[in-house]
Amino acid sequence: MKSKSDLDHSYINQAIKCSSISIIGDPDAPAALKGSNEFIMTENGRKTIAPNSRVEIAKAWIRRKAKTACSEKMLHRRIPILNWLPKYSSDDAAGDLVAGITVGLTVIPGALAYAGIAGVPAAYGLYGSFICCFLYIFFGSCKDVPVGPSAIASLLTFQAARGSWQKAVLLSLLCGSVELLMGLFGLGFLVDFVSGPVSSGFTSAVSLIILTSQIKDILGVPAKGSTFLQIWSEIFKNINETRAWDTVLGITCIAVLLIIKIVSGIKVGPPEDELQTRKHKIINKILWLIGTSRNAILVIVCGGLGFVFHNAGGAPFKLIGEVPPGLPTFQLPPFSLSANESSTGKEESFSDMVYSMGSGIVVIPLISLMETIAICKAFSNGKPVDATQELIALGIGNIANSFVQGLPVAGALSRGAINNASGVRTPMGNIYTAALVILALVFFTPYFFFIPKSSLAAIIISAVVFMIEVKVVKPMWRTKKSDLIPGLGTFFACLMLPLEIGILSGIGLNMIFILYHAARPNITVETLTTPGGAEYLMITPDRCLIFPSVDYVRNLVTKHSLRQNLPVVIDCTHVYGADFTAATVIENLTQDFSKRGQHLFFYNLKPSVCTVFEGLSPVDFTVYYQEQQLDELLHRKDKKLAQLVEIRCT
Amino acid sequence: MKSKSDLDHSYINQAIKCSSISIIGDPDAPAALKGSNEFIMTENGRKTIAPNSRVEIAKAWIRRKAKTACSEKMLHRRIPILNWLPKYSSDDAAGDLVAGITVGLTVIPGALAYAGIAGVPAAYGLYGSFICCFLYIFFGSCKDVPVGPSAIASLLTFQAARGSWQKAVLLSLLCGSVELLMGLFGLGFLVDFVSGPVSSGFTSAVSLIILTSQIKDILGVPAKGSTFLQIWSEIFKNINETRAWDTVLGITCIAVLLIIKIVSGIKVGPPEDELQTRKHKIINKILWLIGTSRNAILVIVCGGLGFVFHNAGGAPFKLIGEVPPGLPTFQLPPFSLSANESSTGKEESFSDMVYSMGSGIVVIPLISLMETIAICKAFSNGKPVDATQELIALGIGNIANSFVQGLPVAGALSRGAINNASGVRTPMGNIYTAALVILALVFFTPYFFFIPKSSLAAIIISAVVFMIEVKVVKPMWRTKKSDLIPGLGTFFACLMLPLEIGILSGIGLNMIFILYHAARPNITVETLTTPGGAEYLMITPDRCLIFPSVDYVRNLVTKHSLRQNLPVVIDCTHVYGADFTAATVIENLTQDFSKRGQHLFFYNLKPSVCTVFEGLSPVDFTVYYQEQQLDELLHRKDKKLAQLVEIRCT
Q: Which of A105, B432, B486, B505 to pair with A251, CA 20 to 30 A apart?
């Protein structure tokens, strides 16, 4: 204790003082001291000192929370239409109109096709594409998101509902409720735990699986099974049953779509906007329009072909067949299945249905959120994305969808890109998309009969083939090679296991990386000399000291300090946090050094971490904040040691 | 690209250069630059520069690994007896003899009692207490560990084997094999992920559960059930069936043990060793000896009592009954159960047995390791503890035990303390303990018949009551309050759920803390002025940029930089790592700033992190390492911007 009172101007030994410690020494020489600042997030861009007492902090927190929850700002945040509608201009209206109709032209063929991925009749795809759009206008926070069936959500729906439309509709309700609850509890941050590599691996695997299932449709081969390998082995087994006309039509459609895509990417005239003539601009606009609506054009042409063949005595390729005309009835989602509705041939109660869907009820909301947020981020120009609000908007949309027999929906990345490129200005664009879908349901369903199945398959294939993110591998290799492990891990896990298990294993694998990071800090060991000429050992850990790493650090410190019997300084500049386990280990460490009579100092320890360590009142725990203090400290300690030896000897 | 070549002396734009970058500027002004050093663990205490090429690193790593695996050093590490036996002195022999016999006196009553916790006849406890001791002499790396049945391992054995000795013995084999495999794969580090609070919570819960089960024995009340709440409710239900004599004997025994413990803690004479007379020393030694062997004394006295009562026509309290005389037979562990051996009344195959033990096969090894390492750490005086070697030693011990019908064993913390206090010098102490156990088995088994059950229960109670770590709560509160959450969480989870699920939930809860740590860095925002007088915004994140945190950081940076339209500097002094996701976000960030025409600089970025970011070749990515460079950089950027505007205007 004597040594402590000696040195009280160079370190603080009481826990309570530490929490409001100011940096010792010249405050205008900040470079050397930067690490010891309290890291407090300040709203006004200036540094503030944290209030001393914990109670005050808690009170302030509660007051702040209560205030924000009831504030007008919160209302605006939760119903984003209040922000933009009052400022809605005619320019906004024009942009939204064009974008909404363009997206609508891709949504209709898309919805028919994605219903096929989900394994339900085509109409259910359209049923899921309008009411959620209306609601998104009120609750959606991101202008570029066109809600509706997406390839990924449809595949997950198929894996959970196994092609029963009743289950798919119930799934909408359940997923919507989960999303809404997650939103209300503010769990939007969960999406942060899906890293880029995991997300790429997952998307690529999903694309490959969808591609596989559509190739099966194009070949017209009967192939059962849901995993990637099963389907391919079935396709090869039944390859001799290939239906020639379906195959020809499908491959032709794919070729046409890809050619249009390439051609529409060509720009005539000079590259600068300013230098293009009026003619150039018109041609470019027409090319872009053809490119964007290529799916709609293909469906109309192929539908015409189907119509001609059908009237000439039967089409040689499969058509999608009867689509019930008119809007869906507004009714409760099915909460039970009768014996002939169920695939097992037995009656299924609500709990049976829920049980059969398994983890899909939680995984679909998470993946839908992931996909939606990906769109928001892609076009946000760096503005923050409110994942929690998106959860709420998706949740409300899905719940409403389940009352009109819609599939679970999300924001589809490909349509998001079209929406953005068409110049969307606000979420209002969704209203035109919804109107188009309603028009289609009311007036055009009789004509959907003639659309060939393989043309829809071709649309899906030429979309998902670009979702296989092969080109992300190279930058990943150049930036951080180890990130390929979770990326490829997720990819192969998703191909070989059920999708939800695949992505969860990928995320789990990635978490292990974080835990390893926390457990094995890098440590630099240097032999340095003080200004006064004394040699000492400088040991610098590069991150926080928490339980998985402290024993490792202790072992290294002990090893090096035993090898070179010099005073040891632990440079804590980078130690931003510590826990109880770290405090016990530091206590042991100071004890060991004290027993050996070797000096141990802590340099530049953050006050909040200092408080943690001093909670256990370790022996001989000395912290200093300026390099020149070390000489003085060494001198005093040596003198004290000499005195101690003297006392013992007398 | 032009801006890059302009500034090439102040930052490095090629990824390959970065990995061997040296700090720019005056190397003798290190304080401001400390964060940008490459953190390389150097063995000789001096800084070395990492080899440039990754291939070379890999080659060197493989060479090093191959070398260590075959080296003499490794042999000494894996068979630690080779280290200490050649230097074994007569002082060592004396210390080990005293300690070994003292521990032996506590092992014998302990083994009989712990067999009760495991729900198997008393003899199996002794069978598990000698062969593992012999083997530990060769393979154990820690002098203070006395292997044998422990309270915690016995409780876990009970939960997995449900009182079948055959299953308990098979469990020894399986746990031993798992430990050996984990050891050979070097998985000892897993124990790092059990934090202090989780370990305390677990130990306390286990102690309470054991206490509960022993109170049941002392009251002589029949109570079935394995969780804490079940047993207590059963005890209260059947409280009127309390056997008076068992209760009286039990409570008396507990009182006697606690009194001896307190009395033996008293020291006569002056506190300093040097000032004590010979008489003082002898009295203190005797008191200590009585204290240490109090369990043995109690068992002998109570056994005598039982003998007297039994011969006088039947003891009024339960005795442990027949213990088969002699050493166990050396035979294979039971790999199947016949119908009358099985508790279910049906034959059980090997796979049935394994299935019924469930996760115990993995959890017991982990918990045993945790307990053993706790002893090593407690008495290591800061020397590194080799968890992997302990796994190997425990594994070999358990496998051998299963051939002599022993229970799964570990190092018991309470006996470890006795071992250390008795002056043990090497693992050789175990040989005397093993010899005592063998003597007991060969000569004293007939006398064990008369030991009252409630005296054994009293021994356990007065041991485990001190394992309830109530006193750890206060320092935890003073150091890091949030650590109480995993601590108490583990405690209650272990009381209410099966133990293995309880501790796994506690560890999982603790992991969430680490993940949260990684996801939400603290960020300081300051408005500073350059030496040249220009204002800028300094944003300092305090830890690495990896996937869960980067979007959060990006949002904050964007928010603050939009609010104050100043040049922004991100101080990367504390950013020790980054991944692919971070690189993509940084790329987006630089793009956003570039579009807005706002300046963005990275200060003091570690070369290895710089390499990661530059893998995606971000636009306008400028790093500098010296404060005074900022003015020059700002000047150049402004000039370039002006030029650009000029070009556009002409």
A: A105
